[in-house]
From TrEMBL:
InterPro entries hit by this protein: DIOX_N, IPNS-like_FE2OG_OXY, IPNS-like_sf, Oxoglu/Fe-dep_dioxygenase_dom, Plant_2OG-oxidoreductases
PROSITE patterns: FE2OG_OXY, PROKAR_LIPOPROTEIN
Domain Fe2OG dioxygenase: 214-314
Similarity-based family: Belongs to the iron/ascorbate-dependent oxidoreductase family.
Protein name (database record): Fe2OG dioxygenase domain-containing protein
The keyword Transcription regulation is annotated on this UniProt entry: no
Spans traversing the lipid bilayer: none
Organism: Panicum hallii var. hallii
């Protein structure tokens, strides 16, 4: 039984409807972990509540990240991306080539997906992190047992187009077509940003093409239902994205926070913009010139928030280390050279609370250098 979020039932209603809900999921007990299809909870279950010193502290004011208009001159855009990238590591882009229709359709179809009855989605539920298409709750990072107030639909899309879409959800009916159109356009924008970065960094313009950006494009459709107590929990833990480049369709409901100068800043999304940030692999390739910045998600009491993160990824076997262009006697390599698969294996645990380490977040990967 799926219930729309919005009105908050009285507690007695909650427990009765929860029992009915559990019965409706007989045969698929794991779906119980999905937050969005469970009856609204009046209080936050213990596994979501962090110790007092690990709770999201009151944050600094909302900040509008630099907004870069990709239709400006190439010189200007190149400079703006590098400046914003070095200063904050996060920026927004507009006039980015992804059509308004593709963005709107994607947002609509993702919200529709999460509103489908639980039984329609039960077959997609899996806790196997190797599964390309699945729904799950909390985070894919290993945690210390605590859970996060977030559900996720993960989709992978191979490029050039293969048959990766075959196991995507069949409902809503237009999901496959909408996701494919969105992913092709969003990846196109990402590849253009990578070319601009290469030019700005003095690398061959196609240095970040090939295996380093040629793995599956992975989509995380993040869904954060209204949370009974946003002050004691998080939607996503502080983490850095492990891929090459992330392009986030952020929703106009705020929630994303970014580590900046020892504190968290709240991202104020601009209309029709994507939020862009560098994944760990860009930090490694540039030997730390560009940083993959830590970020997290806070929840809210009133409205559900749905975001779409598009990850441009290396192939699993791609060997990635600092590029020769960034190395010299004074600049020895700060990171080990690893395959992307090995990197993900090493960098798979999140620590509760923030590390806010401004030098680098890749401590484990650097340790044996
Ligand atoms: C992510 C992520 C942020 C958000 O999916 O890796 O950081 O606001 N998402 O949903
Ligand atoms: Ni992220």
């Amino acid at each position: 039984m799926a219930r729309r979020h919005g009105r908050r039932p009285h507690e007695s209603t909650v427990s009765a409807s929860f029992t009915i809900y559990l019965c409706s999921l007989a045969g698929c007990p794991t779906m119980e972990k999905m937050l969005h299809s469970a009856p609204i909870q009046a209080t936050l279950p213990d596994c979501f509540i962090f110790p007092a010193d690990k709770r999201p502290p009151a944050t600094a004011a909302a900040v509008s990240l630099p907004i870069i208009d990709l239709s400006r001159s190439r010189d200007e855009v190149r400079r703006a991306i590098l400046d914003a990238g070095k200063e904050i590591g996060f920026f927004q882009v507009v006039n980015h080539g992804v059509s308004k229709q593709a963005m709107q359709d994607m947002e609509d179809v993702c919200r529709e997906f999460f509103r489908l009855p639980a039984a329609e989605k039960a077959g997609l539920y899996s806790e196997d992190t190797h599964k390309a298409t699945r729904i799950y709750s909390s985070t894919m990072f290993e945690t210390g047992g605590e859970r996060y107030w977030r559900d996720c639909l993960r989709l992978a899309c191979s490029f050039p187009a293969g048959d990766s879409a075959m196991d995507w959800p069949e409902k809503p009916r237009r999901l496959r077509e909408v996701v494919e159109r969105f992913t092709v356009q969003t990846r196109g924008m990402g590849m253009e940003i990578l070319r601009l970065l290469c030019e700005g960094l003095g690398l061959r313009h196609d240095y970040l093409e090939g295996d380093i950006s040629g793995g599956d494009v992975v989509l995380h459709v993040n869904h954060y239902p209204p949370c009974p107590d946003p002050s004691t929990t998080l939607g996503l833990p502080p983490h850095c994205d492990r891929n090459l480049l992330t392009l986030l369709l952020p929703s106009m409901v705020p929630g994303l926070e970014v580590a900046y100068k020892g504190d968290w800043i709240k991202v104020q999304p601009a209309p029709d913009a994507f939020v862009v940030n560098f994944g760990c692999q860009l930090e490694v390739v540039t030997n730390g010139l560009l940083k993959s910045i830590e970020h997290r998600v806070v929840t809210n009491l009133g409205v559900a928030r749905t975001t779409v993160a598009t990850f441009i990824m290396p192939t699993t076997d791609c060997l990635i280390g600092p590029a020769g262009e960034f190395l010299s006697e004074e600049n020895p390599p700060c990171y080990r050279t690893l395959t992307f698969g090995e990197f993900k294996r090493i960098y798979s645990v999140v620590k509760l609370g923030s590390s806010l380490n401004l030098t680098t977040n890749l401590k484990n990967v650097q340790k044996e250098i």
